[in-house]
Amino acid sequence: MTGSLAGRTAVVTGTAHGIGAAIAQALGDQGATVHGVDKDVADLTRPDAVREFFGAVGAVDILVNNAGGVCGQVGRPLEEVTDQDWQQVVDANLTSTFLCTRAAVPAMKERRWGRIVTISSGAGRTVSLTGIQAYASAKAAQIGFTRQMAHELGPFGITVNCIAPGFILSNPATERQWGSYGEAGQKALVQGIAMRRLGTPADIANAVQFFVAERSSWVTGQTISVDGGHALL
């Protein structure tokens, strides 16, 4: 697979650590020119910042929408969730996906080739282990956005797919979440995974590599659960 993306330009959002960093590394190893972006580079929830970033990068062949997360929040009863809490999580996950996709699409249409992959979550297909209502809602919305964009962009040779990871120990937030379960909770979570292990950032990067490959040109509008079989239970 080495060099199979030579000549392609990729943007990967949320590359500060964990899954985003692994995806950027994997695409770079295949020969793509990768532009990683995190909140210290550009605020992807702001239309002007997104336009400026993509304007500087130029035409993009591959977009991986990985930025998001829980924004430091913890689960609380719905009546305790403020307007700002809700909007912050929705913007970080869903609005950033919309803005970055909108920015990347014109050049893909012109070239009649493109690959868009969005990193959602198992929370978007079932419920969130965090208990954060906005997170589960935004992740589900990313899946719906993927289907709609696949329908709209397919005639231009652009595929749009989604990955719903299971529990990945990949950043400070997930490490705190893991620690909060305690020994018994951790054991129960792993026992609920068919493969009996947690996922790694590389597991998600492997799925991205499949979706962006030339041989996947007839795969679009799909959401694949990369969760070790947790979705089976």
Structure notes:
Helix 1 (18-29) packs across helix 6 (201-212). The chain is globular. Helix 3 links the parallel strand 3 (62-65) and strand 4. It has a 6-stranded parallel β-sheet with strand order 2-1-3-4-5-6, with helices on both faces. It is 45% helix and 14% strand. By secondary structure, it is an alpha/beta fold. The chain has one domain (9-170, 200-217): Rossmann fold (3-Layer(aba) Sandwich), CATH 3.40.50. It has helices at residues 18-29, 47-57, 83-111, 133-153, 172-191, 201-212, and strands at 9-13, 33-37, 62-65, 114-119, 158-165, 223-226. The chain contains 6 helices and 6 strands; from the N terminus they run βαβαβαβαβααβ.
Tally of distinct domains: 1
Q: Let me know the CATH homologous superfamily.
A: NAD(P)-binding Rossmann-like Domain
Classify the helix fraction into a percent range: 40-55%
Secondary structure tally, helices: 6
The shape is globular
Please indicate the percent range of residues in DSSP E strands (runs of 2 or more): 5-15%
Low-confidence stretches: none
Strand order of the largest sheet: 2-1-3-4-5-6
Name of the CATH first level: Alpha Beta
CATH topology: Rossmann fold
Number of strands: 6
Annotated CATH architecture = 3-Layer(aba) Sandwich
Instruction: State the order of secondary-structure elements, H for helix, E for strand.
Output: EHEHEHEHEHHE
N/C terminus separation: 33 Å
Mean pLDDT: 94
The class by helix and strand makeup works out as alpha/beta
User: Major sheet: size, sense and barrel closure?
Assistant: 6 strands, parallel
Radius of gyration: 17 Å
